[in-house]
Amino acid sequence: MGTAVECDSAGTAGHHVGEAPHRSTLAVLREHGIASAHRARRVNADDFRRFDLVLAMDNANLVDLRAMAPSNATAELALFRSYAPDAPLGAEVPDPWGFPMEHFREVYTLCQTASRGLLQALEGAHDPAQRRFPASTLECAGKRERPRS
Fold it and tell me: How far apart are CA 133 and CA 2, in angstroms?
C-alpha cells in the first residue's frame, strides 16, 4: 500500500479522558496479539482538519460529531461500518459496554471487517484528489463514552 495512514481514537464525550480502554477490550486485543497503550481523549476541533476522514461507530456519535465540527472542517464524516461490504446501509458498531465478553469479541470482528474495507477503499485511491468515500458515509467518529461501574 503506497498510502500513508494515521489512525487515532477519540470520544465525543470526556467521561474517561486519560483512562486505558475497558478491561474486556484489552482482553480481546490480547487474544489477537495486540498490545495497547491507548488513553482516552476527546475529539477536538483540530481533528476535523488534521484527518481526511473521521469515522463514527454509531449514528448518535455521528450527530455529535457534526455538531462539534468547526466551520473550516475538511474531514469527511462517515459511519465506520459503511466500509464493511456485508453491512446494510446505516449499520452501526454496537457498544459492548455492560455486556458479556462475547459482545466485545463480536465488536472486534465487526471492526476488523470494516477496517479491511476501509483499507481497500484507500488502496484504490492513491491520489487524494481522486479518493471517494462511500456515498452512505455521512457522519463521523469514536464511541460514545459511558460511565463505568
Answer: 18
Query: pLDDT, tens digit, for every residue of 43-88?
Result: 999 999 999 999 999 999 999 999 999 999 999 999 999 999 889 9
Q: How far is residue 3's CA from residue 22's CA, in Å, rounded to a whole number?
A: 31
pLDDT of 6 above 90? no
pTM (global) more than 0.85: no
Q: What φ, ψ does residue 92 adopt, rounded to 5°?
A: -110, 160
Domains of the chain: 23-130 (3.40.50.2300)
Q: Which three cell numbers stand for residue 58?
A: 454509531
Work out the number of other CB atoms within 10 angstroms of the CB of residue 112: 12
Instruction: Report the half-sphere exposure of 55 (CA within 13 A, side-chain side).
Output: 21
The helix (H) or strand (E) run that includes residue 77 is strand 76-79
